[in-house]
Each structure stands twice: as structure tokens, then as C-alpha cells.
């Protein structure tokens, strides 16, 4: 096997595929990346049995073939090659990688031993614009739990009703819900997908690619995403996702309108001090036409900043884990942010003006 390709194409593909390489493999082959060069295309596969990824990039193949190499090492060496073009050749159980005067040899494994990513039998499917799926993932997946004894909280719930799809994620202390229109009307369905698999897909979608669609196919246990030169299958998370209707506040006694960028800068500034206390706690005081944001640490000191805001309703002091506030401010796209509150013990709702398709709910902490 011998082929050459552009470094950027391969680096981007590996950044995506590496997410399906097993971290603690049962056998060494599962820590590998499968490569198959044929004609003008290189196929890259990774499979940890929970998620399987196939992606393809253009190459110039002199001699076709297939190999498996250590995924982590392969990615590291490719990323650090000095030239824009890289040449690969399979010689005596070694994959020789050459670029700009640099070379490295990696031991290969038997390609026949690699568990190829299979297309599972799926019963139903629907289509969604790639940029719409990316937007759904970006605005919700961050709210899912990273690690939890309850796997259901590590996933995002897809909920399709007619021509509308909702994606919701929660870790039990915060919740993000986003909606998008589908190009057609589909059968109602609901299932939970690992958030980590969705984050990987988001990385592979070009935010400027407004013309293409993703085909999402699903069965009782599996889900597949197909778009461009990408195929991903993922095992669904079993169980019932918490009902988001019960979490979203139906009314509020204090309503706030604040400039998103100014609020974000103030939160990020005070967050530098909140890292010094145990729960990353920041206090928000809503009164007198503004928000006072403060955090204190007995060992270090204190920090605070004020932001102008429109306050309608009762004055209120409430504390949050600052990460829960900073995270949503990274994905809010509107210039102004609306915050609906009740009391210091009740969840707060964050929304964008004139946008019914997004809501974020954060539970306060006792300060």
C-alpha cells in the first residue's frame, strides 16, 4: 500500500474518527485506526462497539491496500508532520510516514482482525439540514453529564413530532432545549443518543454548509448518521429521559433583560475568583436597574462586577455554579438575553428575545 494526501484533510478526519477509538481496549486492535486506500479515496474507520465511525478523504493512491495502526500515535505524528503533503507506505509490517524530510515507522496490525463498522438494521429515518443538526447539538449537548451513574443523563434526547425536532440535554441540575424545523413531516419518535457521539459529529459539520442534509436512521437500539463522506453508528442509551416539561418554569416574578456580550464578559471575569471556592459559586444580585455579580474565597479574596440591565419585578439575590451560566453564554447568539426568575431556591430560565425555539434552565446553589 502506498498513497499520499494533504495533511489538513487527514488531520481533520482523524480528529473526528479518534472519538470512536477505545480508551481502555479489550484487545489492542480496538485502539487502532483502520486505513484502506483505493483509487482516489482513503477510508478511515474506528470502532469501540458503542460508536463506529467511517470517514473518507481524497488521496493519490499508487498501490492500494489496508492496514491498522495505533490510533493515538498515528494522530499525533500526522498532526506534527512538517509539510502540507504526507506520503504513506506499508513495508514489512510497518507503516512508513514521510513528510518534508521527517519520517516515522509505526507497527501495523492485521487489517483482517479489525471489527469493521457495520450498518445496523434500522427501521425508520428522517432528514435534517446539516447546519440545523449542528445548531441543535451546539446549543444542548454541553448540558449533558460528562460522567454519571445514571447513563441517561449522559445523552441527548431526540424528540420528533411531525415537522419539528427537539433536542434536550440535562444533568439533573441544568437543562438545555433547542428546536428546529425539518424539511418534511415524519413519524413521531423519541430516543437518547450519547452526547459525546454528537459532539464528534458537530466537529465534522461545516458551519457554512447550508445545502447538505444528514440522514438519521434509527431502530430500537441503534442510530446512524450519514452525510457527505461520513457514516456514524451509535448505540442508543436505554431508559426514559426525564420529562423536560416539568423542569421549565411556567411563570416568574423577576424578569431581566441584559446585553449578552457585557453579561458574558462580567461572568467570565468573576469566574476567575469562583474557581477558588469549592462549588464555583457566584452570587447574582438583581436590583436598581442592574446585576451585581460577585464571588468570594476565604483563602484568596473577592471579585465583583456590575452590569446594566432592565429589571422588571422583585429584587432578588441568587447563586449559581458559574459554569452553568458561563456555558450557556457561549452558545447564545442573540445580542440580548432574557432571564426569568422566581426566588433564590427556584430554577432560572434563560431565553433569547423573540425565539421560542431555545430555552436553558439552571438550578441555583445554596450560598
Outline:
The chain is α+β, with helices and mostly antiparallel strands.
Task: Give the CATH topology of the largest domain.
Answer: DNA Polymerase III, Chain A, domain 2
CATH second-level architecture of the largest domain: Roll
Helical fraction equals 10-25%
Could you tell me how far the N terminus lies from the C terminus, measured between alpha carbons in angstroms?
63 Å
Largest sheet at a glance? 13 strands, antiparallel
What's the total helix number?
A: 6
Give, in order, the helices and strands: EHEEEEEHEEEEHEEHEEEEHEEEEHEEE
Averaged pLDDT, please? Answer: 94
Task: Flag low-confidence runs.
Answer: none
Strands side by side in the biggest sheet: 5-1-7-8-9-6-2-3-4-15-14-13-10
Question: What is the strand content?
Answer: over 45%
Structural shape: globular
The total of beta strands comes to 23
Gyration radius from CA atoms, angstroms = 24 Å
Per CATH, the superfamily of the largest domain is DNA Polymerase III, subunit A, domain 2
Taken together, the total number of domains comes to 3
CATH class of the largest domain reads Alpha Beta
* Structural class by secondary-structure content: alpha+beta
Amino acid at each position: 500500500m502506498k498513497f499520499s494526501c494533504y495533511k489538513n484533510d487527514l488531520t481533520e478526519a482523524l480528529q473526528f474518527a479518534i472519538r470512536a477509538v477505545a480508551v481502555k481496549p479489550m484487545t489492542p486492535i480496538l485502539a487502532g485506526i483502520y486505513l484502506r486506500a483505493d483509487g482516489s479515496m482513503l477510508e478511515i474507520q474506528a470502532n469501540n462497539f458503542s460508536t463506529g465511525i467511517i470517514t473518507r478523504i481524497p488521496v493519490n493512491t499508487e498501490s492500494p491496500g489496508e492496514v491498522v495502526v495505533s490510533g493515538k500515535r498515528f494522530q499525533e505524528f500526522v498532526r506534527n508532520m512538517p509539510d502540507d503533503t504526507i506520503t504513506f507506505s506499508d513495508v514489512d509490517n510497518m507503516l512508513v510516514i514521510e513528510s518534508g524530510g521527517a519520517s516515522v515507522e509505526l507497527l501495523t496490525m492485521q487489517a483482517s482482525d479489525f471489527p469493521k463498522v457495520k450498518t445496523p438494521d434500522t427501521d425508520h429515518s428522517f432528514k435534517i439540514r446539516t447546519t440545523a443538526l449542528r445548531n441543535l447539538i451546539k446549543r444542548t449537548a454541553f448540558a449533558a453529564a460528562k460522567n454519571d451513574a445514571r447513563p441517561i443523563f449522559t445523552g441527548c434526547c431526540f424528540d420528533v413530532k411531525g415537522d419539528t425536532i427537539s433536542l434536550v440535554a440535562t444533568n439533573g441540575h441544568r437543562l438545555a432545549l433547542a428546536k428546529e424545523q425539518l424539511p418534511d413531516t415524519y413519524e413521531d419518535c423519541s430516543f437518547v443518543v450519547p452526547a459525546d457521539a454528537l459532539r464528534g459529529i458537530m466537529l465534522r459539520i461545516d458551519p457554512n454548509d447550508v445545502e447538505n442534509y444528514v440522514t438519521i436512521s434509527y431502530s430500537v437500539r441503534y442510530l446512524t448518521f450519514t452525510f457527505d463522506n461520513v457514516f456514524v453508528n451509535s448505540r442508543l442509551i436505554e431508559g426514559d429521559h426525564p420529562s423536560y416539561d416539568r423542569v421549565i418554569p411556567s411563570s416568574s416574578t423577576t424578569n431581566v433583560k441584559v446585553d449578552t456580550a457585557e453579561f458574558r464578559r462580567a461572568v467570565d471575569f468573576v469566574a476567575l475568583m469562583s474557581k477558588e471556592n469549592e462549588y464555583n459559586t457566584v452570587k447574582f444580585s438583581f436590583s436598581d436597574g442592574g446585576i451585581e455579580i460577585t464571588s468570594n474565597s476565604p483563602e484568596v479574596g473577592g471579585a465583583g462586577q456590575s452590569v446594566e440591565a432592565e429589571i422588571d419585578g422583585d429584587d432578588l439575590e441568587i447563586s449559581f455554579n458559574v459554569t452553568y451560566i458561563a456555558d450557556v453564554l457561549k452558545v447564545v447568539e442573540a445580542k440580548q438575553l432574557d432571564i426569568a426568575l422566581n426566588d433564590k431556591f427556584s430554577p432560572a430560565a434563560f431565553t433569547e428575545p423573540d425565539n421560542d425555539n431555545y430555552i436553558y434552565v439552571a438550578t441555583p446553589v445554596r450560598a
